[in-house]
Design brief:
2 copies of one chain form a homodimer. The first copy, chain A, is an alpha/beta fold. Chain A folds into 3 domains: about 40 residues; about 210 residues, P-loop containing nucleotide triphosphate hydrolases (Rossmann fold); about 45 residues, no CATH class. Chain A is built from 14 helices and 7 strands. In chain A, strand 2, helix 5 and strand 3 form a beta-alpha-beta unit. In chain A, helix 1 crosses helix 3, helix 2 packs antiparallel against helix 6 and helix 6 runs parallel beside helix 7. The first copy, chain A, is globular, with a radius of gyration of 22 Å. Chain A starts with a helix and ends with a helix. Chains A and B meet through helix 3, helix 7, helix 8, helix 9 and helix 10 of A and helix 3, helix 7, helix 8, helix 9 and helix 10 of B.
Chain lengths: ~325, ~325
């Protein structure tokens, strides 16, 4: 007879929505059962195409994701969406509105939507997103879309998961592309100029073009630029064609597997870090000792290097 | 006779610019000698007031930092400035310009300015900034100003170092304070409306005021709002008075030391993580094994949990 976790894993492989939702909750709560599940599901992963979408607030990310998902569904593909929200008491309302609008897909079993909040995750958000992405992959979603507000290191870590990263820009939303989007310019595979019927779209496209030319002069590959008006479902098919072109090219390249291996190197290190820390700080006694040492360091009664040496020594593994 | 490191530490305590600069370079390069130095200098730290300044590009951070530093110098205080730059091929020029302008202080031995680039540091930037801040503290700088572009988790980690955090806003730079500055609203101690002669300053002040009222309704303390026109050196003395008021209040509060202890808890954990990883992955042999395992995982020949267990087992500390 299968164990409860095996049954659960089987339900996830079959794409059962409630089983998937429960598993995401387990991941978010750092429930150890999530690791058991992911271990079981791991060999069912690696089949999805992961598309990352990032852009400042106001660029129309949610609408674009909505239209992309609908287009993929029309093409017969199953879709998973992970919307990573920078949560705050001040933005909760607007974000919630977006999510409700996206529930227009709620009756379609071929699409799964989940939003994940930044709050409480801090550095762990990229890891949780990666785990949820594995889960949706195992659940048979052929296209996984990860949506983030692209501003900090966290978001950069998140989009690193993606096989193809879209960077959204809109005309007139602060024209200092130079300043605001520097990090994004380096991670984008397709640059999407949304709301492209607005004034300034041509100029923005020229700016992006000039920058990409500057950045990618030597290595042969240059990111594509696609124009969309997501609210009117315009430019979506062309955008999908650009994504497909990029993915086909990327998967044919010898770098694709080394990129995957690099990704797993980073993830293994993260997992090692959290195992080692659990061992060192996992008990209440150990946590209390850390707090006492930190307080001594704060009062300059002990230097931090001596405190670290003390913890390592007492763990019997100096 | 003192060892070379002891001599170096002595030069830093005496505020010698070249000795400080060399130490910062050692920190940036992860040179183990930096730890030796910081261990020696640690008991000379804890005296500086650390002021964090964060705000989007275009809010006039560098100019404000420049004017603040000049005002502190007039009051006879020594100043250290750490400017944390999100570096990119696209912004290098502008940032360099700012730094050159700030070198107007170059002939003043009571002020030390250093910019640190994001590139290459990734998650380690907050740690490097914290170490440089300790160093400047040991070098006798009474005021340490840490300047960052406030957008991601990295920046939030950096400003956590500060005893008092200023959040810079300007009228008319995208009025969706709600969206863009959510994280910052929660970490700011003084909100500075710079370029306050611009249209929209009153409205922005009202917006900030309303938000702060909403966020801080219960806990008694509400962040101050100060208006400046940094380019004309207007409002600077008033801003310093608000900073002093906050610092006096904070240092008198019982939470001040628990905040310091929390800070050192986090730092000790970071140091433990890096020690443990060094031990596990410090040799070329171990690094090669990690790369080989990551490649197996990428090809789905092994699951990541099994790979982690294998590394821990072979390190003899399962």
């Amino acid at each position: 007879m299968p164990t409860p976790v095996e049954t659960w894993a089987q339900q996830i492989r079959a794409g059962e929505v409630r089983a998937i939702s429960r598993a995401i909750t387990a991941i978010e709560n750092h429930d150890p059962i999530a690791d058991d599940l992911l271990k079981m599901l791991f060999y069912s992963t690696g089949r999805a195409s992961i598309i990352g979408i990032t852009g400042a607030p106001g660029t129309g990310k949610s609408t674009l994701v909505d239209r992309l998902a609908a287009a993929y569904r029309r093409a017969g593909k199953t879709v998973g969406i992970i919307a990573v929200d920078p949560t705050s008491p001040f933005t909760g309302g607007a974000i919630l509105g977006d999510r409700i609008r996206m529930q227009s897909h709620a009756s379609d079993a071929g699409i799964f939507i989940r939003s994940m909040a930044t709050r409480g995750f801090l550095g762990g958000l990229a890891r949780a997103t990666a785990d949820v992405s594995l889960l949706l992959d195992a659940a048979g979603k052929e296209i996984i879309i990860i949506e983030t507000v692209g501003v900090g290191q966290d978001e950069v870590d998140i989009v690193r998961l993606a096989d193809c990263t879209l960077v959204l820009l809109v005309p007139g939303l602060g024209d200092d592309v130079q300043n605001m989007k520097a990090g994004l310019m380096e991670i984008g595979h397709v640059f999407v100029i949304n709301k492209s019927d607005r004034e300034g779209a041509d100029r923005l496209e020229q700016q992006v073009h000039a920058m990409l030319e500057l950045a990618h002069e030597s290595d042969g590959w240059r990111p594509a630029i696609a124009r969309t008006i997501a609210t009117d479902t315009k430019g979506i098919e062309n955008l999908i064609a650009e994504i497909d072109k990029f993915l086909a090219r990327a998967k044919a390249s010898p770098e694709f597997y080394s990129r995957e291996a690099d990704h797993w190197s980073r993830r293994l290190i993260e997992m090692l870090e959290s195992r080692l820390l659990d061992r060192l700080l996992g008990t209440k006694e150990n946590k209390d000792r850390l707090a006492a040492l930190a307080s001594e360091v704060a009062q300059r009664k002990k230097d931090p290097f001596a405190a670290v040496a003390e913890i390592l020594a007492s763990a019997g593994n100096r």
